Amino acid sequence: DAKTTQPPSMDCAEGRAANLPCNHSTISGNEYVYWYRQIHSQGPQYIIHGLKNNETNEMASLIITEDRKSSTLILPHATLRDTAVYYCIVYSGNTGKLIFGQGTTLQVKP
Amino acid sequence: NAGVTQTPKFQVLKTGQSMTLQCAQDMNHEYMSWYRQDPGMGLRLIHYSVGAGITDQGEVPNGYNVSRSTTEDFPLRLLSAAPSQTSVYFCASSSGQSFYGYTFGSGTRLTVV
């Protein structure tokens, strides 16, 4: 299983873009980059995923480098409700084995 | 749809007792998993299943048993509870090749005294 490296914590001002980086240098060709977040002690929530191309949905954008060794999750206009732990995970979807790392704690400040 | 339903939401056990945490999903998902989350830590995979009758160990399987007799249900059994198993347990399900990953339940808070 490819592993990911994320900064343990980040701050962001409310209304500004939050850019959360993730390194996954050992990612395989058939593995996707998934992002989840966990607000307080709730169950994790799916945000977005991608393989090679950049992706955008109503929650966030995902930028994946051309060599696929790193990615950035972008929350375009962070709100206080975006304060959470954000997990970057490499997952193929074939094995069913979804492994979480330590994630990044994002604190959005007024 | 109810999604992923976990019962009970809270449980206190005495050391050495056994119990089963229940997990059910109504989305006809093939994949199901159990995680534990200790205070201030990330989620760790206990056991997972890619279909009825198929289970496999995750990162921290010791002290836990699972079975998957139906697509809908994936119970987690604690054989002889220990204080080290005090944690929040999350169940999750996915449609396998789903491009939306896993859907998580709301968790079971277990305290072993």
Describe this structure in words.
The complex is a heterodimer of chains A (110) and B (113). By secondary structure, chain A is an all-beta fold. Chain A has no helices and nine strands. In chain A, 0% of the residues lie in helices and 45% in strands. In chain A, the strands form two sheets. A five-stranded mixed beta sheet of chain A has the order 1-9-8-3-4, with no helix packed on it. A four-stranded antiparallel beta sheet of chain A has the order 2-7-6-5, with no helix packed on it. Chain B has 113 residues and is mainly beta. In chain B, strands 2, 4, 5, 6, 9, 10 and 11 form a seven-stranded mixed beta sheet that branches. The A-B interface holds A 34, 36, 38, 41-46, 49, 85, 87, 91, 93, 95-103 and B 4, 30-31, 33, 35, 41-45, 48-50, 56, 58-59, 88, 90, 92, 94, 96-107.
Offer a quick outline of the entry.
The complex is a heterodimer of chains A (110) and B (113). Chain A is mainly beta.
* Number of E-type strands of chain A: 9
Percent helix range of chain B: under 10%
Share in β-strands of chain A? over 45%
Write the element-wise H/E pattern of chain A from the N-terminal end onward.
EEEEEEEEE
